[in-house]
Amino acid sequence: MTFLYIYLFLGLLIIGTPIVFVMLLAPGLTLVFEDNLRFLNLLVQRLFAGMDSFPLMALPFFILAGELMTAGGVTSRIVRFAETFVAHRKAGLGQVSVSSSIMLAGGSGSAVADASALGGVMIPGMHQAGYTRSFSAAITAASAVLASIIPPSGLMILYAFIMNVSVAAMFAAAIIPGLMIGFGLMVVVAIVARFRTFPDPDARASWADSWEAGKSAFFPLLTPVILIGGIVGGVFTPTEGAAVAAFYAMLLGLFITREISLVQLFQVFQKAALKSAIILLLVGAAVSFASLVSLKRTPQLVSDLILNVTADPLLLFLLVVLLLLLIGTIMDAGPAILILAPILAPVMIGVGIHPIHFAVVMCVTLIIGLITPPLGLVLFVVSGISGERIERISWDLIPYFLFEVAVVVSLVLFPETVLWLPRALGYI
User: Fold this and answer.
1) Contact at 8 Å (CB) between 22 and 13?
2) CA nearest 239: which of 10, 46, 53?
3) How many domains does the chain have?
4) CB 94 within 8 A of CB 189
5) 198 secondary structure, DSSP code
């Protein structure tokens, strides 16, 4: 009966039960079947305790900041600025999509939000310029994952909360991997352009055009500078930084871009509140689920099982990455982190992997799952915007997906790519 809750979890998931109810019903029904009713109160207590956390307040504020930036027209200004630098290259608009994602990543914190905001601008524009819908959607999806890797990242805040590690250390550790993926994707686009026929690139922008685009994008591009600079400099905590980002995004929309009216502001707050409520309830349910995981000593059992396969830390790490890639095809990154981190992290730390190293690799690997069928949320977003079938988009995504997996493997093989910056800043 040790794994009864896992069987119930999988069964409820297969029949289509919403994930939040799966994480509440699986442990609850297990306790009822095992006649351990005295622990039901513990599940309820952990549900509310999971949502009652100061560090977790960063999530609603980052969600609000992303909604405000989308409504405030920040995306179009950043895209125009990126166009002046790379649109003249072969497959130039593909390069614009990637470079825009790198710049937008410092504000939204969500790959799905980035795919929606950037896709709404780039995909129709690229199709109009002569690019296929599938290529436009694929490069938008591949680069959108940067929003959940380059700080601030909502998924990394989730991991830090669940596993009690430093948010600032995770943010610092994710910067180099995020930039590796971002600039690497631009190289992959250039390579793909050698083997495919794309529309002729635009003429190189004049310095006057670049200056004008830079002026319009200046204040939006200050968002990551203020946020990362404030956190690294110790001016405010990551949670306070999220509030600062939301306030700054509101000022941008109301007074700089002037694309948000007071009526729209109310709608933005309403939308952000609804998204926040969904995520916080999910976090509370995951904490409740994790309490039964600990009660059943599942991490120790999984540890024994995995160590029977191999005791070599590097091989073990690579096997876990493979497992996470497979999990990412059938489960969203957020629930996967909430469910698997308490099980896998103790095992990896036990064999000598640094907690921050494993944390970042786990998050990046599951974030890549957002672009893999059949359950990649980003894939569904770009499919809806482009009107292209997921199968066609997935085919065009293959070189970008393989590159991102290669980056994850390099993070495993070379830990300093993750640990150097947080160590240099004194976080670890």
Assistant:
1) yes
2) 53
3) 1
4) yes
5) -
